From TrEMBL:
InterPro entries: DNA-bd_HTH_TetR-type_CS, Homeodomain-like_sf, HTH-type_TetR-like_transc_reg, HTH_TetR. Residues 6-66 form the HTH tetR-type domain. This is TetR family transcriptional regulator. It comes from the Bacteria. GO terms for molecular function: DNA-binding transcription factor activity; transcription cis-regulatory region binding. Gene3D superfamilies: Tetracycline Repressor, domain 2. Residues 29-48 bind DNA. The lineage of its organism: Bacteria, Bacillati, Actinomycetota, Actinomycetes, Mycobacteriales. Pfam families: TetR_N (PF00440). Keywords: DNA-binding, Transcription, Transcription regulation.
């Protein structure tokens, strides 16, 4: 039973993100999401009461994943190996659960700002860059670390029009991120 519930939640989130991309967050209704899924609004309400709840669930998954990276990094020895591992883990996170959230951020910026999920995500982003450059946190090194993280983040959202698979975009973004990080 829990597996079916989880599968339906994932389907709802995926369809909602498709519609938010096609029509925009503001112009998409819960009714349209339910229709695309071929379920009743009541079935949809069982899982999510509002559109905001759908986006919040994606944001929560992304934040939880970043928290796991931070927890790991805080106990790992500082240095270039830890920085590369943070990039790898961040890339895997965004390639998986974070991809829809990053696309939502890019394609629905006014709604993203209004919903207020960005503050905690920006803070976590900075924490990752700081962990990548600890203990010195040289400003130029932090700049490169943030740029490396951004290379991964934006490839999740901005490269969908290229004839590359998600795997190819993911691999290329991590390679580029490592190149940026190596500039220190």
């Amino acid at each position: 039973m829990d597996r079916r519930r989880s599968d339906m939640r994932e389907r709802i989130r995926a369809v909602a993100m498709e519609l938010f991309s096609e029509r925009g967050y503001e112009k998409t209704s819960l009714r349209e999401i339910a229709e695309r899924l071929e379920v009743t609004k009541a079935a949809l309400y069982y899982h999510f009461r509002t559109k905001e709840d759908i986006v919040a669930s994606l944001s929560d998954d992304l934040r939880r994943g970043i928290d796991e990276i931070v927890a790991w990094a805080e106990h790992a020895p500082t240095g270039p190996e830890r920085a590369r591992e943070i990039l790898d883990r961040y890339g895997a996170l965004l390639h998986g659960v974070g991809r829809d959230m990053v696309r939502f951020m890019a394609e629905n910026q006014p709604a993203f700002r209004e919903l207020g999920f960005g503050v905690s995500l920006r803070y976590q982003f900075r924490v990752l860059a700081d962990l990548m450059t600890a203990p010195d946190r040289e400003p130029r090194a932090v700049f490169h670390a943030r740029q490396a993280l951004l290379a991964i983040s934006w490839s999740s959202a901005m490269m969908g029009d290229l004839p590359l698979s998600d795997e190819e975009c993911y691999a290329a973004s991590v390679d580029i991120a490592r190149d940026i990080l190596a500039r220190n």
